[in-house]
Design brief:
Length: 337
């Protein structure tokens, strides 16, 4: 199926081209990208091709463009909008491209209740990889982030942290406007266009997209398995992500069912007697609960501790170059960084 068209029009040619290059590098954008540096070329194109989303600078916006059959128009501003453009949503031009995209997707998702049948299938399959240990431990998240970063060099990857206490705002020294709690709210309300709303929340971290984790453990504990399953199915069916890396905590209801959705479950372990005893109990319970197939998918890992996990400020890209990066590349059979 053909992708819907996201057009960008800015009279500043360098900005339009650079922004288009950024969008084309983003593997998860569910649109075909077209860039224009003149109103005339944009108008000629739209008259022959249906455009679903247009991001256009305030200088380029005019009555002729407003009369075109375009699904959604967002104005690229340099501060305030001219009075005649007040009816359109505006996004500030001179910020990080990732922030521009996130705001545009949020604007689009807020007004577009897209039915699943309207969203094209943009990839053949989506593989879910789980990272989970009944023992807990901080290196689990560092491993999951490293795994996602390395996989993200070749495929479009979404990282989801499903722990009760992820600590990402402190880790990254950043406040997030939207979190997984907001996305789960839409899921529980039965909202349509879940993946469109998700695109408006997704943050970039090196080669990977992620939804900022919940801030309250109740949002993890209070989400039913049916809602988790619905969210994952929406991402599988209606997003362009080729891989989902789930960083799974113990607050998930029916964690065995979530693990059963994973093609591989990476399980960090420890070698002391207490840890081995806990792991043995977990494995026995998998058999008793009739999930022996999960045992065959588990890859037990004794993770190395590298100095990169202590680096200040934290940057996920640094994990790829450190001890954990070497460990993951060897695990995946990848020689190149």
């Amino acid at each position: 199926m053909k992708k819907q068209i996201f057009a960008v029009c800015d009279l500043e040619a360098e900005y339009a081209c650079n922004f288009m290059d950024y969008l084309n590098q983003k593997k998860n954008i569910p649109f075909e990208i077209q860039a224009f540096t003149s109103v005339e070329s944009l108008v000629a194109y739209v008259k022959k091709n249906p455009v679903e989303l247009l991001l256009i600078s305030s200088e380029a916006m005019c009555r002729e463009v407003g009369e075109l059959d375009i699904g959604k128009i967002v104005i690229l501003t340099e501060g305030s909008k001219p009075k005649e453009l007040e009816k359109y949503t505006g996004v500030y031009k001179y910020q990080a491209s990732s922030d521009v995209v996130r705001e545009v997707m949020a604007c689009y998702g807020a007004e577009k209740a897209i039915l699943p049948a309207q969203l094209p299938v943009l990839k053949k399959t989506t593989e879910i990889l789980g990272v989970y240990s009944p023992l807990g431990g901080c290196l689990q998240t560092f491993f999951a982030l490293t795994l996602a970063q390395i996989l993200g060099r070749e495929k479009s990857v979404l990282y989801l942290n499903l722990e009760e206490y992820a600590g990402f705002e402190e880790l990254m020294q950043k406040k997030f406007l939207h979190t997984l709690s907001d996305l789960l709210y839409f899921v529980k309300q039965g909202s349509t266009g879940i993946t469109v709303k998700m695109n408006g929340m997704a943050e970039s971290m090196g080669n990977v997209d992620f939804i900022p984790p919940v801030q309250s453990p109740e949002d993890i504990r209070g989400t039913s398995w049916q809602d988790w399953e619905h969210l994952l199915q929406e991402i599988i069916l209606h997003s362009s992500y080729e891989m989902i890396v789930l960083d799974i905590g113990n607050g998930i209801e029916e964690v065995f069912q979530m693990l059963d959705m994973c093609t591989t479950v990476y399980t960090p372990i420890k070698t002391d007697k207490m840890s081995r005893s806990k792991l043995a109990q977990f494995e026995e319970l998998l058999s008793v609960r009739d999930y022996p197939q999960i045992l065959s998918r588990m890859v037990k890992l004794n993770l190395p501790y590298g100095q990169e996990v202590l680096a200040e400020p934290f940057r996920a890209e640094q994990l790829v170059w450190g001890t954990l990066g070497d460990f993951v590349r060897e695990l995946l059979g990848k020689d190149e960084v």
